[in-house]
UniProtKB/TrEMBL annotation:
<protein>
    <submittedName>
        <fullName>Cyclic nucleotide-binding protein</fullName>
    </submittedName>
</protein>
<feature type="transmembrane region" description="Helical">
    <location>
        <begin position="98"/>
        <end position="117"/>
    </location>
</feature>
<feature type="transmembrane region" description="Helical">
    <location>
        <begin position="66"/>
        <end position="86"/>
    </location>
</feature>
<keyword id="KW-0472">Membrane</keyword>
<keyword id="KW-1133">Transmembrane helix</keyword>
<keyword id="KW-0812">Transmembrane</keyword>
<dbReference type="InterPro" id="IPR010406">
    <property type="entry name" value="DUF1003"/>
</dbReference>
<dbReference type="Pfam" id="PF06210">
    <property type="entry name" value="DUF1003"/>
</dbReference>
Length: 187
């Protein structure tokens, strides 16, 4: 880390630069260089997705929707009605619906791990987003502190300028007063 970044870290963040990780160093460097650090995290994640990842996300999106739940409830109602009342003689899965139970168990056995895979990927996306949000927030905080510092410097230089102007004017008034007191009073 160069000297200017170390100075900025000490001055603005009141921390020693040795305690910073690569993320904080990158933010300080981008502040110094006046470059942006924002990026589209969705593109970074999408670039690394495999076909299986996209399939898992699609299954989780469909399996966790109200249309799937309502459609599956309708399927279960039709299966039960069809095998219990309509097909009492030739029911291919008579009560207690053992084949239906097997089908439901297989769907659950496949769907649950796929949804968990999708949730794990979403958790990783959330971690990437949180790290990026931290970078952006840290940079914004540093920029705001730097602006405050600049405003304080401007205000200080204005006060110094006003003081010098007041001293100059006081000196002029003193000289005018001396000239006036040196003149004889005419009555």
């Amino acid at each position: 880390m160069n000297k200017i970044v170390e100075d900025m870290a000490n001055r603005l963040l009141k921390r020693k630069p040795g305690g910073f990780g690569p993320l904080e160093s990158r933010v300080l460097q981008s502040t110094l260089e006046r470059t942006t650090i924002t990026r589209d995290t969705n593109k970074a994640v999408a670039f690394q997705e495999t076909y299986g990842d996209r399939v898992a996300d699609t299954i989780a999106r469909i399996g966790g929707s109200w249309s799937f739940i309502l459609g599956f409830l309708a399927f279960l109602a039709l299966w039960t009605a069809g095998n219990a009342w309509l097909l009492t003689r030739d029911a291919f899965d008579p009560y207690p619906f053992i084949f239906l139970n097997l089908v439901l168990s297989m769907v659950a056995a496949i769907q649950a791990p796929v949804i968990m895979m999708s949730q794990n990927r979403q958790t990783e996306r959330d971690r990437i987003d949180a790290a990026h949000d931290y970078e952006v927030n840290l940079k914004a905080e540093i920029e705001i502190m730097a602006l405050h510092e600049k405003l304080d410097e401007l205000r200080h230089s204005e006060i110094i300028g006003m003081r010098d102007e007041i001293l100059r004017m006081a000196e002029q008034i003193r000289r005018i007063d001396e000239k006036l007191s040196a003149r004889p009073v005419i009555e």
